[in-house]
Amino acid sequence: MSGVAFAYSRAADVADAVARGGAPGAAFVAGGTDLLQLWKAGRATPTELIDVYGLGLDGIGVDGDELSIGATARLSDVARHPFVVDQHPLIAEAVLASASGQIRNMATVGGNLLQRTRCPYFRTAGMACNKHRPGSGCGALDGEDRHAALFGAGSSCVATHPSDLAVALVALDATVEVSGARGVRRVGLSELYRLPGERPDVDTTLAAGELITRVLVPRAASIGRLATYVKVRDRASFEFALLSVAAVIRIDAGTIVHARLVCGGVAPAPWRLPAGEALLIGQKPERGVFTVAAAAAVEGAPPLPGNSFKVELLRRALVRTLTTIATGS
Amino acid sequence: MSGERARRIEGALKVTGRAEYAGEVRPDGMLHAALVQAEITCGDVVGIDDSAARHTPGFVDQVSYDDARSLAPSTATALIREPVVHFPGQPVGLTAADTLLAARTAAARVRVDYVERPSVAAIDQALDEAYAPAMAGRIIGASHRGDPAVALTGAHLVVRNRYQTAVNNHHPMEPHVVVCWWEGEQVVVHTSTQAVYGTRAIIAHALAMPADDVRVVCRYLGGGFGCKGQLWWPWMLWTLTASKRTGRPIRLELTRAQMFTLVGRRQETVQDLAVGFDATGRLVAIEHDVLAQTSTHGEYCDTTAEVSRRLYACPNVRTLHRLVRTNEPQPIPMRAPGTAPGTFALESALDEAAEQLGIDPVELRVRNFADHDHDADVPWSSNSLLQCYQVAADRFGWAQRPASATVVDGRWRIGWGMATTCYPAHRQPCRVRVRLQPDGTIVVQCGTQDMGSGTYTVLAQMVADALGVPLSQVTVELGDTLLPEGPFSGGSQVTASMFPAARQATDALRAQLAELGMGHDETLADAVQRIAPDGIEAEGAATANADIDVRCMSFGAIFTEVGVDADLAEIRVRRVTAAFATGRVLNPLLTESQHIGGLIGGIGMTLLEQTVTDRSSGRIIGDNLADYLVPVHADMPEFDIALIDEDDTYLPGGVKGVGMLGTAGIQAAIANAIHHATGTRVRHLPIRIEDLLHELPATTPGALPSMSE
After folding, report:
1. Are residues B86 and B111 part of one domain?
2. Confidence of residue A282 (pLDDT cuts 50, 70, 90)
3. Which of A235, B66, B299, B446 is a good FRET partner for B522, with 20 to 30 A between their CA atoms?
4. Which domain holds residue B470?
5. For B271, phi and psi rounded to 5 degrees?
6. How many CB pairs under 8 A join A and B?
7. Is A240 in Cβ contact with B568 (below 8 Å)?
8. CA separation for the pair B90, B298 (Å, rounded)
9. Residue B382 sits in the same domain as residue B421
10. Of B39, B617, B703, the CB nearest to A288
11. If pLDDT is split at 50, 70 and 90, which confidence band does B699 have?
12. 0.90 exceeded by the pTM?
């Protein structure tokens, strides 16, 4: 059923937004594509919505040695922006694998990074869910677990983060710029998300009222590097990832000198696979190397009965991603 | 024989937003309603306290069991008269308020006290309570001819397997909605329904009113697929009750989540099937046992095993349907009821047999063609199945079918598969009125409704053809009980029912004009001005079919090409070629469209659709369209549809139904293609990545071409 009534206002500027955004019941809204669903399902119960869509935070451009993407840039604009397409095609790939054309025309970068899990126990009324109602238990742990996490979960919560974009951005060592009551700070995207632990209801390290204003991607993350995004799903489009992989490698003199392997849809946050990355460094870009690295990357993932196939699926997706990069096809 | 490829005459109204759907009717002073839903799985409602709800600003009224006690007892009123909870989320009351938000807020504040009882969340929790219903749909639940047990013992080959199909929900784009108001002792009901007349009868019975005091209107439907029928009636009747008491128009619209529980589902099946063959590939025996779910408050059984009784020639056949009652929502027919899950089992088994016998799958079916209905031992009114096989196989290129698991296209393993589809051809009573207006234009009226499949257009075509006027001169009125009584939209029978009635009406109109002295070379427009200046009208009627000495069915053959990602096991349907024989084709464009829509529904059932129930709570989870997957545009294969015209002289007008055919057969055609691509047999639906992944060899390690820096 739909949610409770709320007040709505447009923020005058970032200062106004962060000044008001910390109040109990306040929530930021931009494209609203996830918030509307959460509100209808009673999973977001804001009493005051502060609209930040019109604050001019939608610029995309080069800032020093970084690509800067405004938090309210629409996904559709990001995917076709010349800087993004030329310098960071991985971002465009991940964005175009997300949602549908209509949703990408509304959804923003900041909202995409902060969308909440698609775990059906979180989204369905009346189910046990520590993320929705702390202390109520985790229905997925002993229930339907096809979408449950392979990594980073705990006994309190096995929900996964659904963003495609965030997976690509972590692979590119992106940071986010955050404005809050205590000024502006930068945080690595990997550090934006937190694991469920004792507080599965809290998804991020943002303080109350803090607003993501832009995403920054080091230019070096892409220069001379090869990358691609592979998303595995049941239908051909418009579905959250069953799992996904973003891989970035740099080859120097026939040897891999830099590697990022990040997977999506299998952890509470975009999940780096350092064991796999380490086995790529110093090696030739060959299928045998990829196979060994992929096997190491997924080792130790503790699956549940309904998602155990994803360990093998992830291993294969890693090989596919790296092979696609190496063969350029 | 084929008619004109006319586009939908109401299409422009729909795409420009001018077609008024039931939920868009907004009478002055209208209240909004919301349902109070049970939080338990099974038990009795012992108290309803709405005192907190009444304090909600905008609250107007709340109705529940006590307020429905005066309604006549029937299956349509049982759930709103008897305070018993049968499944989670069952409505226990309805609130009405000035705004939707207030209605929903008030609904959330209604306190309900229950006495809970133990529940059954899934059929495997109560297998020992399975029982055989007397009827499966319209047919007797059990059948037996010959001696299949003995015949299986002596068979050259027996393929014996268990096949399972998941719970599906219908999910038309337009949700169920009612907007109703009272005018004295009369009530006007705009509702999204597949049966305006059926709805009228239910309301009149429940409220003990003359039927003429009830007007039900549904001019357009945003899809139905079987769920816009009886399971909607209880909640609609509560809305009417609240409207009567408040004296205000009220609108109730279901949420998408409610459409998972309140308006029916395709029941899950567990099918044990044994098919026996002789050495030449002729069927000697079939045993088909179906276990399915029904609710604790109603009984419904699909005709799942019917295909095994009559699709092929076979002397020894035994079929049985059994049901298990669970505290889950009530199943009802969903597009291609029975034939969709039934052909999945039978046509998968035939593919397995063909492989083991070393006979081409098409040839195996040709060898087992039933030249009459072996179950009833009567002739077919027509059966062009052999032609369907031939035409579809030719257009698909089946003769070039490669060996199993050998074709690769990039990252895709390619497989081809085929299957047969069928559906009974029915007819219902129907009246059609044709009016020649003073200006020479024609108005046609029928109290059936258009689900979106082209009923407006095809009725206009029938009348335009019969009277020899252009289509543009014909206006059609549907979806209103002020019009002559028409059939419900279900079972692929509306067009077949309308045709004889429309023909009778146009014949009667011509006869009247002739009697009044219409000249032989006079146009209708000239004639009406001269001899009937106020216009003139006539009615025609059709009766239901009562086929005793003949069996009427539509048939088809479906061929698919499927790609399975060689490593990641993603499954995509690439190509579907199908030939369908449905009697006389009145509009090839709309018929093809119906078939394609049906096939898409079948693709969804095969690869995507599954309503998931949490086994511990019995609740449906993922009750939204992001989790309940249906095919999207990117999933669309290339469709090639062949229409086989039949001259069926038994059926009035030679018309058979179209809507169901594409949604059966396609499941097995895809499963068989997946087997051809990968060597893996999957005997349950939906077929997903995890069903194939571990059967696909991991890519062999090896050196890549060397990379330059």
Report:
1. yes
2. very high
3. B446
4. 427-542
5. -115, 120
6. 145
7. no
8. 14
9. yes
10. B703
11. low
12. yes
